[in-house]
Amino acid sequence: MSRVASLTTLLFFVSACAADDVGPADSGLTTVADSTGEGDGDGDAEPFVPVPARGITITGVSANHGINVFIAEGDQWVDGSGRIGRLASGRDTLIRVYHELDPGWVEREIEARLEITLEGGEVVEFTTKKVLVTDTSDKYLDGGLWFALPEAEGYTDPAVQFQVSLWEVAPGGEAMEEHATVAPANGPGLIGFENIPMEMNVVYVPFTYNGTTPDVGNADKMAIINNEIYQTEPIQQLNTTIDDVRSSGAQFDVCSMLGTMNQIWSQAGAPSNVYYVGLVDTGASSGTMGCALINANFNADVWVDNSMGVTATSIVHEIGHNQGLNHVECNDMGNPSAGNDPSYPDHPEGRTLNTGFGIRDFKMYPGDTTIDYMSYCTKRWVSPWTWAKVWTRIQAFTAQGSPLIVDPEPVMRFGMYPSGSTEWFTALDRLDPERVPAANTRVEFVLDGEVVAREPALLDTLTDDVSVWVTVRMPGGDAEAAFDTVRYVAADGTVHEARRDEVSFFTQLDPPPQ
To answer: In degrees rounded to 5, what are phi and psi of residue 104?
Structure first.
C-alpha cells in the first residue's frame, strides 16, 4: 500500500514550546499545486514525462537532527558500523540529498523524490523541486535538496526505510550523461533510528543579585534556552521546571555559587537524573559565564538578559561538564581554556568537521567553521564526538527513572576561590569508591579537643580551572555529625580551620520563600 504526496515538501512548523516540556515540534504538510497536469485539451503541448535526471550524481544521503549522519554514500546504503553517529527515534529529522553536477551543466529544475516505507509496508512518497546551479553546499539549508521528517507522523520510527531519486521534469538535459540518481540503488534501506528512551530533566533556580532577578517568567527567553539544549542533545524530551527565586546565595563569581547549588540539589534528594541550573543576572556579558563540577548535577550560569543566546550556550556548556565532558581546545577569543581533552579528534582547533542542523532554529552549522560547544570559542555546536559521549550518559539517566536507585551519602566540602574567599558546607554526593584521594591531604573533625574522625581528601578543580573543592565523607555517614571544629590540612602543611557555626549544613538551609 502506498500514499503519494505529489510535489509536496514536508516542513517543520516550529512553535514556541512551554518551558516545562520541550519535545518534537508541531509539523504539517505544505502542498504545492500539481504543475504536471495534462493540459486543458485546447491545443496544449503534451506534458513532459519525468525521466531519471542526467548530468547529476547522487553522492550521498544524510539524516540530520543535530549531527550529520550519512545513511547512503554514493548510491550505497550505509549500515550502523559505517556511520559517524547514532540517530534517536521520535526526533524531527532533516533528510538531505547530496549531489554533484557535470561540467557543462545546464541550469534547470530537478525533482527529488523521497520514498518512506513505514512499518507494515506502507510507502509514502514526497517530492520537492529546485533549480540547481551548483553542487550541494553545507553553508546554508537551500544549498541542496532536502526533506524534513516530523516525528509526529511516525516517520522517525525505528522500522522506517528510505530511498531517494532525482528526476528531469522539463526538457534541457537530453544531451547529458546518466549517472547514479537513486540511493540506495538496490532498494530501500533503514534510516536507522534507535528505539531507546532518551530524556533530560532540568530544574532552573533563579537568584536575586543586587535587586535584579533573571526574567524566567518570559516564555520566549526560556524557549531560547530550552531549544538550545534540545537541539544539541540526543533526546526526544526535555522536561524542565522553574524553581522558586532565591533571595540569598548569589555571587558575582558564579563558581562561588556552586556550594549553594550543591545544597539545593541535596535538599531535593540529590536526584542523579536531574540537572540543577542556577541563574544569576550579574550584569556581566563576558568573563566567566558559567561554572560546574565535572560529573555532578548542578551548575551556575550568568543570565545575559539582552543576549539569551549567550546564556543558552553557557548552560549547554556547563551541563556538558556535568555530563563528564572536559574542555575542547580552541582560542579564537584570546582566552584559551585549560583542562582540555586531548582525545578530541580535531584537537587543537575544535572544529566539529560535521555540519549540524538545528531542528528548532532551522539553521545549518557548517563543520569547517563551527566549534564544539565544550570550547570557549564562538559559533559553537555539538560535534559527533560529544554527541556520542553524552548519548551514553543520557541513556543511563533515562533508564534510572525516578526515584533514584542509588542512595547518596553526606559529605563535607571546603571551597577555595580565586577571590581568596573560602567556604565550608555539607551536601550529598555519590563518591566513586575507586577514586584515589590526593596525596598527603586530609580533613579532620575535632570534638572536645580530640580528633574524632580523619579522612583523606578528594580534590576537584571547578570548570573555571582555578577554584578548588575539597571533599570528604561525614563521620559515620551522619549529615549532622558532632564536631566542634573541622580543618583541612593541605599537602604543603597549610591548615584551613572552621568552627561548627561557620559551616553551612544543607539540612538546615532555609526553604525558599513561598
So the answer is: 80, 15
Return d(Cα 173, Cα 107) in angstroms, integer. Answer: 9
Set of cell numbers at residue 264? 539545593
Residues 6+ apart with CB under 8 A from 295: 322, 323, 324
**H or E element: which one contains 165?**
strand 161-168
Q: 112: which strand partners?
A: 128, 166
Answer whether 63's CB lies under 8 Å from 191's CB.
Answer: yes
- Dist. CA 18–CA 1, nearest whole Å: 38
Specify the pLDDT at position 304.
96
Phi/psi at 110 (nearest 5 deg)? -120, 140
CA 144, 147, 149, 155 dihedral sign is negative
CA dihedral 438, 257, 298, 351 (to 10 degrees): -80
206-220 pLDDT, tens digit each:
999 999 999 999 999
| CA–CA separation, 304 and 295 (whole Å) | 25
Nearest to 140 by CA among 354, 351, 364, 359: 364
Give the C-alpha separation, 393 to 139, whole Å: 31
Residues with pLDDT less than 50, the chain: 1-2, 4-20, 26-41, 403-404
Please state the φ and ψ torsions of residue 179, each to the nearest 5 degrees: -135, -170
State the pLDDT at residue 38: 41
Got the DSSP string for 91-136? S-EEEEEEEEEPTT---EEEEEEEEEEPTTS-EEEEEEEEEE-SS-
Question: Smallest Cα–Cα separation from 366: which of 381, 347, 348?
Answer: 381
Give the 3-state secondary structure of residue 31. strand
Domains identified in the chain and CATH numbers: 2-35+48-194 (2.70.50), 199-400 (3.40.390.10), 409-508 (no CATH)
- Give the closest residue to 507 by CA, choosing from 398, 425, 396: 425
299-338 in b/e form (b: 16+ CB < 10 A) is: bbbbbbeeebebbbbbbbbbbbbbbebbbbbbeeeeeebe
What span, in angstroms and rounded, lies between the C-alpha atoms of 343 and 325? Answer: 11
3-state secondary structure (DSSP) of residue 437: coil
Q: Are 246 and 203 in contact (CB under 8 A)?
A: no
Task: Measure Cα distances from 429 to 212, 268, 399 in Å.
Answer: 31, 12, 20
Question: What is the Cα–Cα distance from 121 to 316, expressed in whole angstroms?
Answer: 40
